[in-house]
Each structure stands twice: as C-alpha cells, then as structure tokens.
Amino acid sequence: MLSMVSTMIHSKRIQMLVFLGIGLPILFQLRSPAYSQEPHPELPLVVAGKMPIYPIIARAARVHGVVKIRVTTDGMKVSSLQAESGPAMLVQAAKEDILTWQFAKHKPTTFVTTFEYLFEGSDKCIYSNGMSVLNLPLKVRISAKGLMTCDPEAEKKSHP
C-alpha cells in the first residue's frame, strides 16, 4: 500500500516537473512582448481611384519589378509620397495611380504600398489588358503579357 502511494506521488511530481519545465516557459513566451500582437495603425479604406494598368512604354521596354512607396495621408487623401525602391519608370506609374486614391475619413497615417509589375508570356504584336489584383492600400499586383518583336512584312510573307 505504501509503495502504491509512493508511486502515485512520484507520478504527480513528474507531471508537475514536466509542466514547470515545458508549460511555464511556453506560457511566459506567449505573454512576452515579442509574441504579443502589437496594434498596427489602422489602414485607411480606399473608396475610389484609377484602375492601375501596366504602363505601355514599360511593357515595350520590358521593364518589370517591385515598387515600394511610402504613402502619407491627411485623413482624406494622399498628402505625400516617397519612393523607397523600384525601377524609375514603374515608380512614376505607381505614384500616379496612388495619387488618384480617395479614402474614407480616417486618422492621418503613413504606410508602405507595394506595386508588383510582372510579365506573363508574350503576345504577338498586340497589346492586351493585363490583370490587376488589388489588396488596397498595401499591395497591388499588375501583370501583362510582354510583346514579341514583330515584323509586319514577315507576317505578310508567311500568309500568301
């Protein structure tokens, strides 16, 4: 009987040690600032703006890449833009698009918007609309088909 009680006490001690050794550190980490969710500034709601497209000149020049722009708002509209990275031709297009954004009334804020311009295959001698995926105001993804170099005379010869 005594050995049975001793075994139960030993078992409870092991459970307690396991909890103290594993459980408590996990609980403390969850409560530490590194693991807690810090409040993010509220992002403004974009209620109107121009639909972004891939600039034709950039497509023709085969310019692609990621543009990052720091946007500051005054509570209703964009008050300033600062390019952080990206090809100049695409930075200019992204800035022009962002300047058309209108927001629902909000607290003035600053955030970084990322525009990603990329090619998906090639078209033959024609421009076509690409695709824009908007996750406003933080991310815009614009894809378009690249242009193949075309020779209209060669096309005529191949079709008698």
Structural key phrases:
160 residues; alpha+beta; TolA/TonB C-terminal domain; 5-stranded mixed sheet; two-stranded antiparallel ribbon; 7 strands; 31% strand
Structure description:
The protein has 160 residues and is of the alpha+beta class. The protein has two domains: 1-37; 46-147, 2-Layer Sandwich (TolA/TonB C-terminal domain), CATH 3.30.2420. Helices cover 33% and strands 31% of the residues. It is built from four helices and seven strands, in the order H-E-H-E-E-H-E-E-E-E-H. The chain has helices at 2-31, 56-60, 88-98, 152-158; strands at 46-48, 65-73, 78-85, 102-103, 110-123, 131-135, 139-147. The chain has a five-stranded mixed β-sheet, covered by helices on one side. Strand 2 (65-73) and strand 3 (78-85) form a beta hairpin. The termini are far apart.
Number of domains: 2
Major sheet details: 5 strands, mixed
Strand order of the largest sheet: 3-2-5-7-6
What is the CATH fold-level name of the largest domain?
TolA/TonB C-terminal domain
CATH superfamily of the largest domain: TonB
Average predicted confidence as pLDDT? 78
Would you identify the CATH architecture of the largest domain?
Answer: 2-Layer Sandwich
The proportion of residues in beta strands is 25-35%
Distance between the termini: 105 Å
